[in-house]
Amino acid sequence: MLLRNGHEQPLIPRYFDLLVFLIERRGEAVHRRDIFDRVWGDVIVSDSALSQAVRTIRRVLGDESREPRFVRTVPRHGYRFVFADVIEEDDESEWQIVELAAPVPVNTQNAETGSAETDPYEPLLQRLTSVAANRAEEEDQREAAELLHALGTAEALRRLGTRPHHTFARALLRDTRWDVAEAGAVPIVGQPAPVSTARELVLLRLRDAAALVAARWARGSIGGGLAGILAGTSGGLILAAAPGSAASLDVAPVLALIGGSCGAVGGAGVGAGLSVAESIARSRRTLALICGAALGGGLAGLIVQWLSRWSLAALFGLDVATGGGIEGLAIGGAAGFGYSLSTGHADGGLAAPRGWRRFSVAALTGAACGLAALLIALTGRPLVGGTVHLIAQASVGAQVTLTPLGHLIGEPDFGPVSAAVLAAGEGALFGLGLALGLTRRGR
After folding, report:
1. What is the reported pTM?
2. Distance from C-alpha of 410 to C-alpha of 398, rounded to nearest angstrom
3. How many CA atoms lie within 13 A of 387 on its CB side?
4. DSSP 89
5. Are 271 and 296 a contacting pair, CB within 8 Å?
6. Within this chain, do residues 225 and 152 fall inside the same structural domain, yes or no?
């Protein structure tokens, strides 16, 4: 714990870890990369998260950035703990902790004289409700929100009321409450202009995490595409080698192309939905991830469904009832559920587990997607492999009917059991590739 003159100074765990890390390596300039690896090793955050953490530590220590006594900024490098008189002692005795009294509300005006009294809230509220013209003023507004939480969240909200730009101010107070240990609740529902406040909050968080969301969207698309290529190639090789099959080895690259294209589009949709939801949701995270991934998957599925039916009708005159929208919605929701369940420990950023934890996330996400695909197949709706079989059946002279795969499983044709096994494999591989792509840490 952090004590100052016998009073405990609350810090959220990550900020406390950062302070300890800087003290451990006092006397040397610690690179930002090393700080991210140590303090935010299980999540990916923007650079502004570190700046905010240092600003909060300075506020708690009573430090100044211009004339630092404790934490100095090293331009284009990182930070350095510069206080020289650090004493290390064995912690063998109990510390005497003095509990801080709750902040006493301050009246803004004397009821008898009508004169304005010293009010720490009003200058901060004015900063919070002003329009920032540059990045420095935006950081100043965030600092004002943190100071208001330290004074008293409920009183700050009461004084904020519905003055101009109150929705942005309320959204910023809601966003910073996760970074101030003594902050109170900042509700949105049931408060003035809840829709506008929610929109401001979403825009605020998306702006800070836009680059991270874009990178994860791309990695999710690549992961889904690679999974589709693996599934298509494996299916083509098995089909070519199956007894009684008329397919040649040329089928493998064709199915790999189809699988990779479908996997990449699906990965882009689900990955975008997951990344956006994860960047804006700090409460009700599981519900947000499920809904975001389901919407992204459903939209991607509808696009694939429309393109495939239009292409088949325009090029070959085939009318095949291909799926897409419902399947994408279900598999996307399953991916969101598995991903949220396996990354529940992640807080304050986009989950990026390492080592065996990363593979456990991928395995659980793949299992959830495989189960969803299995249930879809049991309802008679085909996924990629089943759709290829339907197209082959409707075409004259096609060599990629999946009847030989049904023979391998023990069915006389490509029946419900074969479709279920194939769909479950497709879904599991997609979820596995998607999760591995999403959780890959960039340089």
Report:
1. 0.82
2. 23
3. 24
4. -
5. yes
6. no
Which residues, at least 6 apart from 18, have a Cβ–Cβ distance to it below 8 Å? 35, 39, 50, 53, 54, 57
* Together in a domain, 270 and 169: no
The CA distance from 361 to 355, in Å, is 10
Query: What is the Cα–Cα distance from 17 to 41, expressed in whole angstroms?
Result: 12
CATH number of the domain to which 56 belongs: 1.10.10.10
Per-residue pLDDT of the chain (443 residues; tens, 9 = 90+): 888 888 888 889 999 999 999 999 998 999 999 999 999 988 888 888 898 899 899 988 888 888 899 999 999 899 999 998 888 887 776 666 555 544 444 444 443 444 445 788 999 999 999 988 888 888 889 889 999 998 899 999 999 999 999 999 999 999 999 888 888 999 999 899 999 999 999 998 888 888 888 888 899 999 999 999 998 898 888 877 877 777 678 878 888 888 899 899 999 999 999 999 999 888 889 999 999 999 999 999 898 888 877 777 776 676 767 778 899 999 999 999 999 999 987 777 888 898 899 999 999 999 999 999 999 989 988 888 777 767 766 665 565 677 777 777 777 877 788 888 888 999 999 999 999 999 988 66
Q: How many domains does the chain have?
A: 3
For the purposes of burial, counting CB atoms within 10 Å of the CB of 282, is it exposed (0-12), middle (13-18) or buried (19 or more)? middle
* Domain extent at residue 25: 3-81
The answer to whether the CB of 319 falls within 8 A of the CB of 296 is no
Strands 7-8, 30-31: pairing kind: unpaired
* Residue length of the chain: 443
Strand (E) or helix (H) holding 236 = helix 194-241
In the numeric block, which tokens belong to residue 385?
Answer: 């492999």
Beta-carbon contacts of residue 434 (< 8 Å; ≥ 6 apart): 220, 223, 224, 227, 266, 267, 270, 271, 335, 365, 369
Query: Are 307 and 162 in the same domain?
Result: no
394 Rama class: left (phi>0) / alpha (psi -120 to 50) / beta: alpha
CA distance 231 to 116: 72
